[in-house]
Amino acid sequence: MRALDHYAFTLLQTAGMSASEEGFGGGVLELIGRSSLLSQAVLVILVLFSIASWAVVLFKLRQFRRVESQTTRFRDVFRRSSKFSDVHSVCRSLARSPLAGIFQAGYVELNAQLRLADVSNGPDPPSESAARRRLKSFDALDRALLRAANVEVAKLERRVAFLATTASITPFIGLFGTVWGIMSAFEGIGATGSTSLAVVAPGIAEALIATAAGLFAAIPAVYFYNHFTQKIKELAGAMDDFSLEFLNITERNFS
Predict the structure, then answer these.
(1) Is the CB of residue 201 less than 8 Å from the CB of residue 59?
(2) Are 77 and 191 in contact (CB under 8 A)?
(3) Considering the entire predicted model, what is its pTM?
(4) For residue range 108-160, what is the model confidence (pLDDT) as tens digits?
(5) How far apart are CA 100 and CA 94, in angstroms?
(6) What residues contact residue 11 under an 8 Å CB cut-off, 6+ apart?
(7) Where are the domains of the chain?
């Protein structure tokens, strides 16, 4: 048993010495430096994807933090105010909230219909039965709110699709680099006619770096894409609730 252990230790030591002689030592940077130009180009592409996706992540995190903060403030102002004109006055300061954009669209449509109703009544003073102004079409108001909600959702979804692209394409780019590196490693085996660890290991190690880089770029992109998608769904639900609340208030006062 001792002889077998000694033989295994001697074999590993010899393989390590051979690998060092063939240039298999060093870290990841040295492996990248020894890789082919195509493998290095694949790594550059993956690094660019990773940097761009992290830039999108940081931008969207900041955007959603502001959106949620201003949405909470706008909802409080809307529910405390007794007049739409008071709410409209704070829309500019809370413009990042999607509820403010929906309210402005509804407010514009509401005023347009009320002005049209005043013109159709003529210059004569209104009678007691016509003193309360009425909207001509609640469906038109509903469509205006729906259109504004779609615009706000599109703003929230901007650049999020890039994370999905990064999550789906970078593993394949890394796999391509790995396959190419393994092909080069087999070419080296064929050229030297040796299957020793010193010959096989460097090429395989260089090839696997591309897969690791692809996963490094894809995993955060997948996580944050799902995170932002959930945030958008929650905000879309809040927009639907606000639109219904706006319609209810309008129907109570102008029907």
Answers:
(1) no
(2) no
(3) 0.76
(4) 999 888 887 665 554 444 444 444 567 778 889 999 999 999 999 999 999 99
(5) 7
(6) none
(7) 35-253
